[in-house]
Specification:
820 residues, alpha/beta, Rossmann fold, Helicase, Ruva Protein, domain 3, 6 domains, 35% helix, plant defense, Apaf_helical, ADP binding
């Protein structure tokens, strides 16, 4: 009895200690749990999964309930026969919770860190910057090469380092290097030290929209992008945003502000934010904002140095070096314009002497004055456009010149995806289907400095090259030049018809029939006659206020239709169903919210339609497209098309050969019936983090040659039937961070030429069947990281396998695409 009493007293003292531990645990963790549940960042990162939070909350609630019951026994424990049971329960709860924290929560945190790193490593990397390229995040853009602008850079730096609020204008001719200098300023160490992450670099362009501008800054600040009711609402919310991020001084760079857009600057300068600086780059001096900084043409010595760099000339006495006097005469003809020096040097790089001589003669004789009449209005850009035209004329390959002119079909200051160009050029110029020759054209235009080529993710091998991470940008003056090339004839006869529709404005040729059959052309009545155009390419750009009020047009000859839109709702033109020769449809939404497409069923009338690319739209229910060969979906919502549609994809697109789905956040599984499309050769599902499984009947894709599943972070396993894809040449599962094993019989893929397992951090081993790759009749490339390389060390000396260790490259400039 005495022993029992002593043990009861000890248990009672321990009970108090255990109870106090439970109370302290609740007090410490309950507020943290509420913060996790309410955090906006949870939605941004597909955050700790709901079940993880529920499990953690269940543990805490269990402790809380037991603590409340135990408190009643705290003062009378010696009288209660049940307190030992509560003591044991509390201790058991505490042990279970400690185990949960030590094991499950730690693994959850590791998984989340891995997911964040996965996101960061899948960011599109922009290693080069065109004068018109936007940065993707708050912070300084990458420092470009800057020559002959040191004094002006120092003046701007002194102004920006001063305390207080101010606006400064950097002015100069088009192509003079204003954007280059502004970016150089932003990446100066002292400027970065003062402003930190509060450097915002935004391209404004010709027709700025205040609400879009405000949405851009919300996006750059990694905040949800609101839909503003009015411009006043946008200004109010934008000021509140900048006040929130304004713990450090703010530098706002407004690049490429055109005359007539001063009101935007005036509204922004009124923000009551301390240490708030605005730098404006413009061809106009905007003297109302004070004395501008004028960027003059380069002096001759700096111009020569820049030309040597772009022409890849070294200062040696090599026999293939052009005569220095010849170089100096050509440089003089460029009039100190960095853009002209860059483009003309690119056109002459590694060219024979006759090309150099011809360029010098062009600058020296009067033919340049005669050619200037080609350019309208005799603007300050006329001389520069004329020199750029001469560089363009040096292109002997007519297809390459046509390809350059096609770049004017897209909105200014926007990156153009290389797959879009490939889809167009393969169709228009009868190039090879795999895009090799189209890429040759891209590379040649880039080497001539007519475009800026952006490779956002380096690949370890060129086998089965994937172009979804490649973009091009074009300087606005070069874009103007491309458009001018297309306007040599009346719009009815042009090869490329470019139409810009903003708000209620319509061109004077716009025709729309009324109910009585009378046709109204802007400003007068005319007899009924459909507007017939001969263009092979039709490019239509609309703004966010466009009402889908289409004219009645008959583009019988069009093979490519490009629709550039910004509105949340968008209806395909009624004349689409008349485009009997249409082969390529490209719809790109440049707004901040996905656009709802209507009248998609009109495409069912087009028997020649072979390629469709949709970007940032909600894909509607599928219609029958029997001859479609390629479907590309980028940053789209796919639920209506793949889950809610009454038509299976195999019935809608029975002859599909290539399906590419990239950055589609709502894609959880592949569409039903996909594996019945036996014609499919390429299947690319990339950056779709919620994709959790592949269909088990994937082996039915008997002609599949490329299976790409990059950065599908929730994909945990691959079905064994993948090993039955007997024609598979490329399998890319890089950065599938949850994938724990490969199919046991993967070695049966005897046609495999490339296997990429880079970033598959959960892979703990390789199946023994990989030994069978030694029987291949060709060399197979295996792309992996250090961890993957270690797995292959267990299978040394397998013939015909070449292991390539990929370098880890982290870059954040892709976030402006993935966050949209």
């Amino acid at each position: 009895m005495v022993k029992y009493a002593i043990q009861t007293i000890k248990n009672g003292l321990a009970f108090r200690s255990t109870l106090q531990t439970g109370v302290e645990t609740l007090n410490a963790l309950s507020p943290l749990l509420e913060r996790i549940k309410g955090s906006t960042s949870n939605n941004l990162l597909d955050r700790p999964r709901d079940e993880d939070i529920v499990r953690l909350e269940t543990h805490l609630r269990g402790i809380e309930e037991l603590v409340e019951e135990s408190k009643k026994l705290k003062r009378t424990w010696w009288k209660s026969p049940t307190f030992p049971r509560y003591q044991a329960k509390l201790r058991k709860k505490d042990e279970d919770f400690q185990r949960h924290l030590a094991v499950h929560v730690q693994m959850m945190l590791l998984a989340k860190v891995t997911e964040i790193l996965d996101i960061l490593m899948n960011v599109k990397i922009s290693g080069q910057f065109d004068e018109k390229q936007n940065t993707a995040l708050c912070g300084a853009p990458e420092a470009p090469h800057c020559m002959g602008m040191d004094e002006l850079l120092i003046d701007l730096k002194i102004e920006m380092m001063k305390d207080g609020v101010s606006v400064r204008v950097l002015t100069g001719l088009g192509g003079s290097g204003k954007t280059t200098l502004a970016k150089k300023l932003c990446s100066d160490p002292q400027i970065e030290g003062k402003f930190g992450g509060n450097i915002f670099f935004v391209t404004v362009s010709k027709e700025p929209d205040l609400m879009i501008f405000a949405q851009t800054l919300f996006e750059r600040c990694r905040r949800p992008v609101p839909k503003f009711r009015t411009e006043e609402d946008a200004i109010i919310q934008l000021e509140l945003l900048l006040m929130q991020v304004g713990r450090k001084p703010i530098l706002l760079v407004l690049d490429d502000v055109w005359p007539g857009s001063e009101s935007l600057v005036e509204k922004l300068i009124k923000f009551k934010i301390p240490n708030y600086k605005i730098l404006v780059t413009s061809r106009d001096a905007f003297r109302r904002f004070g004395t501008p900084c004028k960027l003059d043409p380069l002096d001759h010595n700096h111009a020569v140095s820049l030309f040597y760099q772009f022409a890849q000339l070294n200062d040696s006495s090599s026999s293939d070096m052009p005569d220095k006097n010849l170089v100096h005469e050509i440089v003089k003809g460029c009039k100190g314009s960095p853009l002209a020096l860059q483009v003309i040097a690119g056109s002459l790089c590694q060219q024979p002497f006759e090309k150099w001589q011809s360029m010098m003669e062009f600058f020296q004789n009067k033919s340049i004055l005669e050619s200037e009449s080609y350019f309208p209005n005799n603007t300050p850009d006329t001389h520069l456009l004329c020199r750029l035209q001469e560089s363009l004329d040096s292109l002997k390959d007519i297809n390459k010149k046509e390809c350059f002119m096609d770049l004017g079909l897209f909105p200014d200051d926007q990156e153009i995806p290389v797959p879009v160009l490939i889809d167009m050029w393969v169709t228009l110029y009868n190039l090879d289907e795999d895009g090799t020759k189209a890429m040759d054209n891209v590379n040649d235009l880039s080497n001539r400095n007519l475009i800026n080529f952006i490779d956002t993710r380096k690949v370890a091998t060129e086998k089965h090259m994937y172009y979804n991470n490649h973009y091009v940008m074009i300087h606005d003056l070069l874009r103007d030049l491309a458009i001018l090339q297309s306007k040599g004839e009346s719009f009815e006869q042009r090869k490329r018809l470019i139409i810009d529709l903003n708000g209620g404005n319509r061109p004077d040729w716009w025709i729309k029939p009324n109910h009585d059959g009378i046709v109204t052309r802007i400003g007068k009545l005319v007899k009924w006659n459909q507007l017939k155009v001969a263009a092979r390419i039709l490019s239509i750009s609309t703004d966010e206020t466009f009402s889908s009020d289409w004219c009645d047009m008959k583009p019988d000859e069009a093979k490519v239709l490009i629709l550039n839109l910004r509105s949340d709702q968008y209806s395909l033109p009624d004349f689409t169903k008349k485009m009997s020769k249409l082969e390529v449809l490209i719809i790109t939404n440049y707004g901040f919210h996905r656009s709802e497409l209507t009248k998609f069923e009109l495409l069912g009338f087009l028997s020649n339609l072979k390629r469709i690319r949709l970007e940032k739209v909600s894909v509607p229910s599928l219609c029958i497209l029997k001859n479609l060969r390629k479907l590309s979906l980028h940053m789209c919502n796919t639920r209506n098309a793949f889950e809610s549609c009454s038509i299976q994809i195999s019935d809608a697109m029975p002859n599909l050969e290539e399906l590419s789905i990239d950055y589609c956040k709502d894609l959880i599984k592949l569409p039903d019936g996909l594996c019945n499309i036996t014609t499919l050769k390429k299947l690319s599902i990339t950056n779709c983090r919620k994709l959790s499984a592949l269909p088990h009947d994937i082996k039915n894709l008997e002609n599949l040659e490329v299976l790409r599943l990059c950065s599908c972070s929730d994909l945990e396993e691959m079905p064994e039937s993948v090993a039955g894809l007997n024609k598979l040449r490329c399998l890319d599962i890089s950065d599938c961070v949850s994938l724990s094993k490969l199919p046991d019989n993967i070695g049966h893929l005897q046609k495999l030429e490339k296997l990429s397992i880079k970033g598959c951090s959960e892979l703990s081993g390789l199946p023994n069947s990989v030994i069978k790759f030694g029987n291949l009749n060709h060399e197979m490339h295996v792309i992996c990281d250090e961890e993957g390389f270690a797995l292959w060390e267990w299978f040394p000396n397998i013939p015909n396998i070449k292991i390539v260790k990929a370098k880890v490259e982290i870059n954040l400039n892709w976030l402006h695409r993935t966050c949209s």
